[in-house]
Model the fold of this input.
Amino acid sequence: MIAAGYATRLGELTKNFPKPLLKVGNNTILDRLLDDIDQIEDIDEHVVVTNHKFAPIFEKWACERMALQDKNKKPIRIIDDGTSTNETRLGAVRDLLLAISGNPDGCASDSVNKQTAIDDDILVIAADNILNFSFQGFVDYAKDKQSSVIMCHQEPELKKLQRTGVIAVDKDMKVLEMQEKPEKPVSNWAVPPFYIYNKKDIPLILDCMNHGCGFDAPGNLAHYLVGQTTIYAWPMPGTRFDIGSLDSYKEAQRVYGGE
Done:
């Protein structure tokens, strides 16, 4: 889970509190995601990368979640990326690299925070989305392809395509090209911030910063890897609600608050 942003567009609401832990209805944004992922047998733990400012809040949340008596709940590790301001943020790709390689500077005083390197397939999610479908199909697709995969959806609006990742695919949904915020999109396949990276591609990921990979947005890594390895795309079977502003948070409360 990438959760190290400062959500400056939400103003006072997230000045001293992390956006993924805001409540929508009776549950937080992040808990809604994890409640689904906890049902997927192939997932064995959650790793949440956050910043130094919000790390204590996430640590408290993780301990409280793990204290609930539910046999399906997976262990949670919190990684503190050491930054304290939006201006000094590492960016999503660098935060992901911390999660994969282990964070030698993080707190290791208890089981929630103990840091170890990851050597397995990984599901990468931006922690500020609400979905009306399960990640189970996405995981099953990655297992079937035995490859790294990214999610995609049809986006008819040019302006929205120009603000996101866009892919070109063949008839088998193998990714041929990925653009980042293109002026002239190659297709209407937009890429939301959900990815599964195959274990065999971990060395490529760990070396990506040495080859000019962008680091601010999570899509930068997928954009880089398309030229380095085989990646397939999975069409999103439902809708997602991206909570990026105060207005979108209020709309999420209206749409999902009764659930």
Observations:
- The two ends are 23 Å apart (CA to CA).
- Confidence is low (pLDDT under 50) at residues 104-114.
- The first helix runs from residue 29 to 37.
